[in-house]
Amino acid sequence: MVAYEVDGAGRPKLQDRAYFWRAPEQSGGEYTKHLMMPKAGLGNENKMHALVAQHEEIISQWHAVPGVRPEGAPVGLTQAADGSVFIVDDRNAAILRLSVGTSYTSQQLSHVPARDISAKSLLPPSEVTALLKRRCAHCHNELHKQPEQLLNLDRWLQKSVEANTLMEQRVFKDKVRPMPADGQLTPAEKSILQNWFNTI
Ligand code: HEC
After folding, report:
1. Mutate to test the pocket of ligand 1, among 142, 154, 170 (most ligand atoms within 8 A of CB)
2. Quick one: 94 and 139 in the same domain?
3. Residue 78 and residue 49 share a domain
């Protein structure tokens, strides 16, 4: 997927030369730079001085990589009022969102808990358990039968660099992908969770 710089009328800006990059054929190979040779439409192959627009590659390599991702296919594109761009990928039944700002990086987690969390405090009080079952367990199935698979020091209760647990981060701080993914907690539900977090 490429983008062009545009003029006041929204048309790609033209210049004498434009380049494109070709992906390496072997893994670990180098990208190579090539001059675009515009044909300027059928029958104009000999027109040497056609102007061209320089594109910038925004997303490349939609091909499948075994064990990492299937092939993608961008088939639809629309822009939201805040400038972000939504792309429909029909092969993966996914909607991708490109937005302005700093790029997403998975959270850095420190393995040293800043506060002492004892095995006992990992067992949530019954109102927390009820809340997790009601608001989270239809997506995070482990919460029904083996909540300790998620509520442990390597997973949801692991501290992040900001000294929040991953769970606090996703429920209270995360602006990009807040939890629950299907609607906010009520203030009462938030305070049930906050009270529990304060004790661990
Ligand atoms: C509608 C489905 C849905 C609901 C409801 C939901 N989640 Fe999630 N949750 C997801 C999905 C999908 C992911 C993985 C993708 C992501 O990280 O955004 C996720 C990821 C997370 C993560 C990060 C896990 C990790 O290993 O990085 C945490 C923590 C989390 N959810 C907590 C919660 C809590 C707490 C609730 C309830 C208050 C909740 N979620 C409700 C779908 C849901």
Report:
1. 170
2. no
3. no
What digits encode the pLDDT tens for the residues 138-183? 999 999 988 888 888 888 988 776 678 889 989 998 888 899 999 8
In-domain check, residue 45: yes
Domain with 78, as residue range(s), is: 73-101
Predicted TM-score of the model (pTM)? 0.55
The CB of 143 under 6 Å from ligand 1? The reply is no
Q: Is residue 191 part of a domain?
A: yes
How far away, in angstroms, is 151 Cα from ligand 1 center?
A: 12
d(CA 82, ligand 1 centre) in Å:
25
Q: How far apart are CA 2 and CA 85, in angstroms?
A: 12
| One domain for residues 47 and 91 | no
Query: Rounded to the nearest whole angstrom, what is the distance from the C-alpha of residue 191 to the centroid of ligand 1?
Result: 18
18-40: per-residue pLDDT in tens?
Answer: 999 887 777 778 889 999 876 65
What is the C-alpha separation between 99 and 128, in angstroms, rounded?
35
pLDDT tens-place string over residues 100-122? 777 766 665 555 555 566 666 67
Long-range contacts of 125-131 (CB under 8 A, 24+ apart): 125/196, 127/192, 128/192, 128/193, 128/196, 131/189, 131/192, 131/193
Give distance in angstroms: CA of 48 to centre of ligand 1: 56
- The verdict on 57 and 2 lying in the same domain is yes
Nearest CA to ligand 1 atom 28: 167
Here the tokens at position 120 are: 């006992």
